[in-house]
Amino acid sequence: MSPDIRPESFSADTLPADAFWAAYSEGAVAELERHPGRDYRGKLDTDPDGRDFVVSWPALVRYDYQANPQFSLGVHTRLGRALRTVIGARLMRQDTRPHRAQLWFVLELLGRPQKELSYQELREYALEELARADIPPERAVAALQQRLPDEARWAAYQNDGDVAYLAMEREVVLKAFGLLVTDSRVCRALMSVVENHAREDVVTVGLALWALGRLNDKDAIPFLIRLLADPRFGYHTLEAERALQLLCSGGRMIPLSSGGEAPREYWERAAAPLQRGADDWARVDAASVFWEKRLRRARAWVTTGGQPAELAALRDDEVEPVRRAISPVPILMILSYPLAYRQTARAHAPPPGPVNGESAEGSLRWRIEEEASGDVVLRFGSDDLALRGARVRVTLGTWQGQTEFRQAAPDQVLGFLRIPVADRITMPEGESPRVEVHPVSDSDPPVSG
Amino acid sequence: MDPDRAEAGIDPTIQGGGPEFRDGDLLFRAGTADDSRLIMQLTGGQFSHAGICGRAETGEAVDAYPRDPQDQAIACVSLVEFFDEHHAAGGGGVCRYRGDPERAREAARFAARQVDERYFFDIRSPILGRGYEVVGDNRLYCSEFVWHCFRTGAGVTLVDPRDFYDLFTAAGRAEDAESLAALVRERLVSARTPKQMAQKATAQVMSDPALARKVLKRELGPGHNGRFVTPDQLARSPRVLHVHTFPARSPEGQS
Known about the structure:
- The complex is a heterodimer.
- Chain A is of the alpha+beta class.
- Chain A contains 19 helices and twelve strands.
- Chain A has helices at about 15-25, 55-60, 80-90, 95-110, 120-130, 135-145, 150-160, 170-175, 185-195, 200-215, 220-225, 235-250, 265-270, 280-285, 290-305, 310-315, 320-325, 345, 420-425, and strands spanning about 30-35, 40-45, 55, 330-335, 355-360, 365-370, 375-380, 390-395, 400-405, 405-410, 410-420, 435-440.
- Chain A has a five-stranded antiparallel sheet.
- The longest helix of chain A is centred in the first third of the chain and has 14 residues, at about 95-110.
- The termini of chain A are far apart.
- The longest helix of chain B is centred in the C-terminal third of the chain and has 16 residues, at about 175-190.
- In chain B, about 35% of the residues lie in helices and about 20% in strands.
- Chain B has helices at about 5, 35-45, 80, 100-115, 140-155, 165-170, 175-190, 195-205, 210-220, 230-235; strands spanning about 10, 20, 25-30, 50-55, 60-65, 75-80, 90-95, 120, 140, 160-165, 225-230, 240-245.
- Chain B has a six-stranded antiparallel sheet with strand order 6-5-4-3-7-12. In chain B, strands 1-2 form a two-stranded antiparallel sheet.
- In chain B, helix 2 packs antiparallel against helix 7 (about 175-190), helix 4 (about 100-115) crosses helix 5 and helix 7 packs across helix 9 (about 210-220).
- The chains are: A alpha+beta, B alpha+beta.
- At the A-B interface, helix 4, helix 10 and helix 12 of A face helix 4, helix 5 and helix 9 of B.
C-alpha cells in the first residue's frame, strides 16, 4: 500500500523519505527546495495548514530506490532501450488489443514481419528484436507524423470511442520518447501531437505532455506557454503546467499557478528570468529539485564531461540512480552457457547458434558465438557510457579472461573476448561462467592485449 | 428460465427481473446509505456505484469496492448480489457499449483478469497521470475501474475523465464538493477506519461545512493531478445504450 502522506501522519519538521517520494510522484508537493548535503524543505499540497516539512539528507540517501519502480525508468540514449523499458513494465504484461497494437507498431518500426503469435510470444519477440536492433528516432518521428489523426479520423472516433481510429498504438513510442536523452527531433514530434490536441484522445495528449516535460528540451517552454492561452487547450492546463514546472525549476521548485493569475501570464512571468544558454541550463538542471533532470545531466556529462564541482555533486547525489549514472557500480551476472568443451560430445554436431542475453537490470547485453573450430567469442555491449574503460572479467573454475569496454559508437561501449578451444577443454563441466564488470577507478592500470 | 420471460430477455434470478446480460455490460446501482446518497447528490446523478458484467454465462459481475482493510479492492460477485435489494435498494441500471460487441467482451475479459491483481480502493486515485502508466498504479475506484477496462482492455474511451473541480463545482455545487472530500477522507480513503466509526465521522462531517471545507482542501488541493469518472458520467455516455432499469425497492440499504 502507498505510504501515508496525510498531514497528521508526520510531524511538522520531519517527513519520512518514503512518504516524501510518494507525494513527489503523485504531484502532491506544492513547494520544494533542495539543500544539497543538508535536506529538502517544502510544503505539501494536501496540508491545509501549510506547514513546512523537512526530509533529512541521510533519510534520502538511505531510501531503497531499487524497490520503487518509478526510479527504474532511467534515461536512455537509444530508442530501442527506452521501448524495452516501457514494454517490460508491469502494465504491458497484460494481453489486450491496445497492447498488441503497440507491439506490432514497434515491430513495424523495426521492419520485422507479422507473425501468428500469442500475446506472450509477441511481447517476447518484440523485446528480443529490440535487443538485437535499434530504431533510429527519425524513423519513429516520421511514423508518428504519418499517423497524426485528421478530421475524418476524429469524426470516426467520436462515433464509438474506438481509439484505434486515432492510432493509439503511438502511445508506446510517446512513453519511450519521455525516457530518451534530450533530442530536438523528438521534442518537435511531441509538440506536433500536443498541437493536434483537438483531434487527439485526451490520454494521448496527456502522455505527450508528460514526455515533453521529461525530455527536458527547453524549446518546449515557449510552446507550452503559448498553448496555455488557447481556451480549447483548457482540459490539459494542469498537465502543461506540470511539464513547465519540470522544465523550468532549478534548486527551488516553481509552484503551479494558484488561480489568482491566468496560467499563461503566470508562466510568462516565471520563465522570463530563465533566458539562459545551454551551459547555464545544464548547471541549473544538475542542481534541480527534480531528480529526473539530475539523472539526465549525469548521463550527458558521462559523455562530454562537466565542471568538476558539478560532477562531484552528482557523484554524491542523494538519489542512487543518479549516483550510479555517473559512477556505475560493479555488475555481476552468471551466463547460462556451457563453456566447457568436450571433443567426443561435439564430434559430429555443428556448433550451437549464437545466444543473446542481458543483465538483470538491463544495462549490459551479451552475445556468445561458437565457431566451427570450437573457439567461442563473447561480445559485451552497453549504452551506459560511464562503463567506458571498465573491465569485464569472465571466470569459470580456475580459468579467467578479461577485456575492456571501449567506445564503439557515440552512445555505445563494446568489449569482446575470444576463448580458444584449448582453454575450453580445461574448463569444468556443469558450471556456468561468472561475469564481473568493474568500473574504472583512477588507480586502475589499463588492460593490455 | 421461464420461457416467456426468457423471450423477453429477462433474467428471473435477478430481483424484480433483469435483462439478459452480456459480457461487458456496464452495471450501475444506487445505494441508500449516507455515503451513497452523498455521491449521487454530488455527481447530480442517480447511481452511486458501477461495475462490469465479467461473465454473463455464469452470472458474474466484477467491481472495485472499498472492501475490508488491506484486502483486494477488485472482486467477482454474482449479478444477483450486485443488484439485490440490500445493495441496490435505490435502484439500478444496465448499459451496453454501442460499438463492436467484441470490444465489450474484451473489456469483460480484462476485468476478470484484474481480480488476481493487487489493487487498493482509493477514490483519490488519479485516473491518469502518475508516470502516465509507464509503471502503472495500484489504486482505483469503482467507475475508474470500468473506464479502465474499456480503455486499457479494449481500446475504447467511453468518456473523457473530468477535472475534479470542473465536475463537482459545476452548477454551484461547491459546498457539495467539500462534503464529498469529507466523505472521501473519512469513509472511503481511510479503509483502515472501522466502518462504524467511519459512518459516524461521515455524518459529523456532513453536518459541519467548515470541517468539510478544510478536508476538501487537504484531500483534493488545487495541485491534485487526477481526474474523475463518475458512475453517471459512464451511464450517460453517448457511446452506451441504456438497456434496463431496476426500480428502487426499499428506503434502507447499502451500496
